[in-house]
């Protein structure tokens, strides 16, 4: 299936990981990493009351940052459901907030003119039929205990639950643009080494058919252990345009602000705006999207660090979005420490390091009729050069034919 054009036009989306794990505020795998028992973890279920939840404000923040689509965790690995599922009581309806959070999210995202996507975990550590495996919070229990736990567990029943909940999500909330399943990374019969389950256990072929049958235009990712519509590198930037079997593929790198998908109150590894912008540019230069994650707090808002980061990205995007939206790789070879993104007959040169005075673009020699050096030191971290390959021939101070050397301020302005 050809991926709908909006995806490579929009280029930049917001991932949102939110759920009970926002209360301990130490990572979405906190139940697993800290071996929290079900009864201890249940405290978060009993006290989940995000009084500052305002999905319209989430969507406004995303829009101001230049993001065009949003993907919310409907259920993460802990099994907690953010919508009014009729297949379980383990939902936001039965917590103090008592709301269908997915419904409010979708309504708000659409109201801000953005596209709505869902993340949905195949893994479910809460469901009584989900077989304890190598990733389960109880994985370190003695083998006899794991055997006892798995007695009577029936993955066929879990599979029916999984498919039934996907049907709820794809029939109850209007048009959904993107479904990010999570996770089995490998398309094989040998079961993903991490969670010991593969396409058979998930019923992936049937689940994909169900997904497309209910939402014919939906984009589906590649984590059902069978091919999807795109490839989703996890927290890394590919070093070249991605291919599968020698054929170029659409891809989207999902990235965190600070190393944690769920809210991490310590925010130990916050990425600077400059780096995140360069990751976005780098991706587009290789025909990729970026899905940048925010983990709302246990009260439902974005913390100050996330807001400041989004504002910084938005400041850059407000001036350079035309080098991102609808742009992609250029056939021209970019000089070292730079990236080209190209949109139609406009080429954008992104300087990742500040050259000492000049940048030489031999690959463009004789091809550029007009180059415009856009800068506003007060607002952006680095520069965008916007040499239009086909435009009114105004030149750059009488460049001799056959070369293009951009003369830049010798020292990068204070950033
Ligand atoms: O285990 C999850 C993780 O918590 C997070 O949801 C990421 C997002 O791509 N996916 C899995 C790890 O790859």
Automatic annotation (TrEMBL):
Q: What is its EC number?
A: 3.2.1.51
User: Which key words tag this protein in UniProt?
Assistant: Glycosidase, Hydrolase, Signal
Instruction: Please tell me whether the keyword Nucleotide-binding is annotated for this protein.
Output: no
An example of a Pfam family matching this protein is Alpha_L_fucos
Q: Which domain of life is it from?
A: Bacteria
Task: Cite the SMART domains for this sequence.
Answer: Alpha_L_fucos
Summarizing the function annotation, the protein's role is: Alpha-L-fucosidase is responsible for hydrolyzing the alpha-1,6-linked fucose joined to the reducing-end N-acetylglucosamine of the carbohydrate moieties of glycoproteins.
Q: Return the protein name.
A: alpha-L-fucosidase
Query: What broad class of enzyme is this?
Result: hydrolase
Domain Glycoside hydrolase family 29 N-terminal, by residue range, is 3-320
Q: Which family does it belong to?
A: Belongs to the glycosyl hydrolase 29 family.
Q: Which InterPro entries match?
A: FUC_metazoa-typ (IPR016286), GH (IPR017853), Glyco_hydro_29 (IPR000933), Glyco_hydro_29_N (IPR057739)
């Amino acid at each position: 299936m050809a991926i709908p054009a909006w995806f490579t036009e929009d280029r930049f989306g917001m991932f949102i990981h939110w759920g009970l794990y926002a209360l301990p505020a130490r990572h979405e795998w906190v139940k697993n990493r800290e071996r929290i028992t079900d009864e201890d973890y249940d405290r978060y279920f009993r006290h989940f009351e995000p009084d500052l939840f305002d999905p319209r404000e989430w969507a406004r923040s995303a829009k101001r940052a230049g993001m065009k689509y949003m993907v919310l965790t409907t259920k993460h690995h802990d099994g907690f459901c953010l919508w009014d599922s009729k297949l379980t009581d383990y939902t936001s309806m039965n917590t103090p907030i008592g709301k269908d959070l997915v419904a409010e999210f979708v309504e708000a995202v659409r109201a801000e003119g953005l596209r709505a996507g869902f993340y949905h975990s195949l893994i479910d550590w809460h469901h009584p039929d989900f077989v304890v495996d190598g990733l389960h919070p109880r994985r370190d229990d003695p083998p006899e205990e794991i055997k006892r736990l798995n007695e009577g567990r029936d993955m066929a029943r879990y599979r029916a639950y999984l498919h039934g909940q996907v049907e709820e999500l794809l029939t109850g909330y209007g048009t959904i643009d993107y479904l990010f399943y999570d996770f089995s990374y490998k398309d094989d019969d040998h079961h993903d080494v991490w969670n010991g389950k593969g396409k058979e256990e998930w019923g992936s072929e049937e689940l994909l058919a169900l997904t497309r049958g209910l939402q014919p235009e939906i984009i589906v990712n590649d984590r059902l252990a069978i091919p999807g519509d795109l490839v989703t590198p996890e927290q890394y930037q590919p070093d070249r345009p991605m291919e599968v079997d020698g054929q170029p593929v659409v891809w989207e790198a999902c990235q965190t602000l600070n190393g944690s998908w769920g809210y991490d109150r310590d925010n130990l590894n916050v990425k600077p705006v400059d780096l995140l912008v360069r990751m976005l540019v780098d991706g587009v230069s290789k025909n990729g999207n970026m899905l940048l994650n925010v983990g709302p707090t246990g009260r439902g808002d974005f913390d100050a660090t996330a807001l400041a980061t989004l504002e910084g990205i938005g400041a850059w995007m407000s001036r350079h979005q035309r080098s991102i939206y609808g742009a992609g790789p250029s056939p021209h070879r970019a000089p070292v420490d730079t990236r080209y993104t190209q949109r139609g007959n406009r080429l954008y040169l992104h300087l990742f390091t500040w050259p000492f005075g000049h940048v030489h673009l031999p690959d463009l020699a004789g091809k550029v009729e007009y180059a415009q050096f856009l800068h506003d030191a007060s607002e952006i971290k680095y520069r965008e050069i916007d040499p239009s390959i086909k435009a009114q021939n105004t030149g750059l101070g009488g460049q001799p034919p056959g070369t293009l050397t951009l003369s830049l301020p010798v020292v990068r302005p204070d950033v």
